[in-house]
């Protein structure tokens, strides 16, 4: 009897990580397992996420029980806040220590903090292959060191690999500028990795096209694999009903300095004070403040100052509680950083709730394409407080005029944007022609 094909999945952020790409990673391994593959994941230790970035323990329960997860240590000295572990140089001359640390990090692979992980990750990948031969490696970024480990295994054993770019490596998705010189180590590494990859995945068309233009020899192997929403992670949210009184607005997502928080809150204050929003309306923001376990103080202060005009910060929301968070909202606010290449995983969940959406982001963002057929979107023409106030008022009108035709259109759109529908064609295409 032939054995099932074996997928090796390399990822830094995997449950219980709460990093932005964790849902894509979780859905990807589950999709391969559901399609009959044996799946082995190599990722960082639980302590890594619990200590440095914050963790969502409920996510581990969602990993298909057929998936084998191997965890290896990950050291992150730059994020270590325990001064008792600092050496004499770090205590006496922090900038010198930081510069030397970065040089040491980048020696194995040109990625600060993550470079040293290349060797243990590559060793773990080889151990998996030696134990049970691997048919395909799928590495997801960032960090991009996972790509290097996949390439190391390919070079040693011939196992083909797929690169899943959740974001971009040498492109600043907000400014559109290239971040490296053409002959830098990063640029050379990227060119090598792309040239040898079986497939390269991107989450939206602009990102795929930017890379295809610069690496035309690889263009035919570059594909768009959109994000999507996960029925297993988002139970059905009760449909919203037409509403004309005080409205409950809500934002859910990681709040970073790239999110136009100041414009959103000023626009909210304006719309509330001049009566464009019904009296008593509220805006609740849920999610982590920043990328790490310790919240960013300035962001917390901004939110605290806004409490006097109906703004509330609910803190992080565990994935198991997300459906309840959405159910408590009449209108959802999608606030994103500016940039043509910027996309969002959260927008797909927003679509699945079938609620009106206030799109507080640059109209040129790739997210605009996802919402193109959504009938209940209030869009800003530019990200300014005045435009935010106008869009908030428009969304109040949308919230009052929902009907069965609108809900039917949203049902069709949400079904089309399920994550499993985005992944299924690639899972099928990558299956070995003859299982051995």
From TrEMBL:
<protein>
    <recommendedName>
        <fullName>D-inositol 3-phosphate glycosyltransferase</fullName>
    </recommendedName>
</protein>
